[in-house]
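Example for tutorial group B:
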């Protein structure tokens, strides 16, 4: 295998297309348990985080100026974090010289980001934080044009590692669930082998469990605990987003949230109770699956003994 183009640390965020971004914002605050960090009314998008990154989710309205015509709710893109901008730009230049194509390059003020498509057409972002205190920039209502950015050219790349370091997680005390951070995205692959090769070669993920011949693979970044799950399409599963994984603060609290969800009339899609992890999956107002979990004996080294139907909901 040729050397990877990038060497990502971990998943940073998922950006979803939603049918009503303010309704989605209310759900992700009051049910999922993330604070709204900032909002872009001109883009019709809300960004939520408890501190792990400058947004754990972007909630982009299907009528946003960034949405294609007739966009349905679902995955917009998901993003992997790099060590710093110097490494991001080096990967960008390696990619260009190998003939790899990007869809866009964007400067978000606190981070700079590259966008490309995987073999199934899912949009993948690779970015680096360029400001230590993102809350100093990303707060409240933001209406601002993005500066023009040519990687490595228009501005000297930042060599320092500026992802969030020491901070205290915030909480939404009255929420049904208590999200700590978004940690992974799970996709059903149309072309499993091509997708497997892409995620090794482009972001430079590592296989945590599974493989090219397997029905499911869990990948991780350099510091991640499981950042990306690839599921071989079977049994009528639709290719594309399967779920976004959200770590909770503790299993005891997750079990309490499950009770509160019942009282609030929130449907539970699936519970997987496994020695490695306790996982509860629900749907957001647009039917997008969200997996809340608390790890036990993690990482798991084998999927033997896990029911095949449960596997996508465990990883
Ligand atoms: Fe993004």
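The residue assignment follows.
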């Amino acid at each position: 295998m040729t050397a990877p183009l990038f060497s990502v640390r971990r998943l940073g965020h998922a950006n979803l297309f939603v049918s009503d971004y303010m309704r989605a914002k209310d759900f992700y605050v009051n049910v999922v348990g993330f604070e709204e960090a900032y909002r872009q009314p001109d883009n019709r998008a809300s960004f939520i985080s408890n501190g792990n990154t400058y947004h754990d989710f972007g909630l982009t309205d299907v009528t946003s100026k960034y949405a294609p015509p007739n966009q349905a709710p679902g995955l917009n893109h998901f993003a992997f974090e790099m060590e710093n901008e110097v490494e991001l730009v080096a990967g960008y230049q390696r990619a260009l010289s190998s003939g790899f194509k990007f869809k866009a390059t964007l400067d978000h003020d606190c981070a700079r980001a590259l966008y490309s498509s995987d073999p199934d057409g899912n949009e993948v972002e690779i970015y680096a934080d360029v400001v230590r205190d993102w809350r100093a920039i990303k707060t409240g209502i933001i209406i601002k044009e993005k500066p023009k950015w040519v990687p490595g050219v228009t501005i000297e790349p930042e060599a320092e590692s500026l992802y969030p370091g020491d901070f205290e997680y915030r909480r939404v005390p009255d929420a049904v669930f208590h999200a700590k951070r978004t940690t992974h995205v799970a996709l059903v692959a149309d072309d499993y082998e091509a997708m497997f090769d892409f995620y090794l070669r482009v972001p430079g993920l590592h296989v945590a469990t599974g493989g090219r011949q397997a029905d499911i693979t869990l990948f991780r970044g350099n510091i991640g605990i499981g950042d990306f799950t690839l599921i071989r399409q079977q049994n009528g599963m639709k290719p594309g987003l399967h779920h976004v994984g959200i770590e909770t603060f503790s299993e005891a609290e997750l079990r309490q949230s499950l009770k509160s969800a019942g009282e609030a009339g929130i449907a539970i899609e699936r519970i997987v109770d496994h020695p490695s992890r306790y996982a509860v999956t629900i749907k957001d107002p647009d039917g997008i699956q969200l997996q809340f979990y608390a790890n036990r004996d993690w990482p798991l080294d084998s999927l033997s003994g896990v029911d095949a139907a449960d596997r996508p909901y465990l990883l």
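The CA atoms of residues 30 and 174 lie 7 Å apart. Compare this with the pattern of hydrophobic and polar residues in the output above.
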